[in-house]
Amino acid sequence: MLPNWLYTQNLLPAGVVADAANPAVPREEVLDQLLGSPLNGALRRGGNWEQTGRALAALGTVCPETAVAFAGHLAEQHREARSAPEPYLVQAALLASAAVGIATTAVRAKPDGAAATAVLTAQAGILRVLSMLDVLGLSGKDTGGTISASFHTVVRGSARLLETNVADVRVATDHPVLRDEPWQERVTASLTGDWSGFGGAA
Fold first, then answer.
1. Is the distance from CB of 2 to CB of 120 less than 8 angstroms?
2. Residue 4 has pLDDT above 50, yes or no
3. 145 dihedral zone (left: phi>0; alpha: psi -120 to 50; beta)
4. Do residues 94 and 48 touch, judged by C-beta distance below 8 A?
5. Model's pTM, two decimal places?
6. CA distance 140 to 150
7. Per-residue buried b or exposed e for 61-79, using 16+ beta carbons within 10 Å of the residue's own CB
């Protein structure tokens, strides 16, 4: 991410990123390497939210389609293994992380102050959500219901900000989990204490 949201190599080895960036390496081979890397199953093992987001951002900078596909794979792993944070938040946060990497490459290729500011702002929001998931997980706090809904609102706002300034990110953000049209109505209802639209208590 701008200027330096890099992956952590204990989850995503540099060699895997190098192969992902090389169009001569078949995509199936890259996916096989990702499946064999520590990134695979990181969320299922618990924690590692921020590092996983950073890894997907790094992957997004070199191979958007692979980053989006693997974000979906990790989200499905989480859905099968855990109920909190809510699966919709997990998928949204992982896709948005990949989108930040995609946007970073676009801004570096064609520098633009407004777009760079948008990427930095979106990055800050997504990182905040991921780091808070790490903190809450370590403390044993519940991350379902209203917390997931609140965090999802931040992630969706970050995704919209990226789309407005960097069209390339739609490969990651043009997904129902980030384009739920009734979302604003749900947020409005939550202001009066009605969280039922997010799977929480009314």
1. yes
2. no
3. left
4. no
5. 0.88
6. 18
7. bbbbebbbbbbbebbebbe
Tokens representing residue 45 in the block: 């093992």
Euclidean distance between CA atoms 138 and 59, whole angstroms: 26
- 141-196, pLDDT tens digit by residue? 878 777 888 898 899 999 999 999 999 999 999 988 887 666 667 767 777 777 67
Rg of the Cα trace of the chain?
A: 16
Higher-confidence position of 22 and 8: 22
Q: Among the residues of the chain, which ranges form H helices?
A: 14-21, 27-35, 49-62, 64-81, 87-109, 113-139, 145-165, 170-173, 183-190
Average pLDDT, the chain: 86
Beta carbons within 8 Å of 123's beta carbon, 6+ residues apart: 1, 2, 5, 57, 100, 158
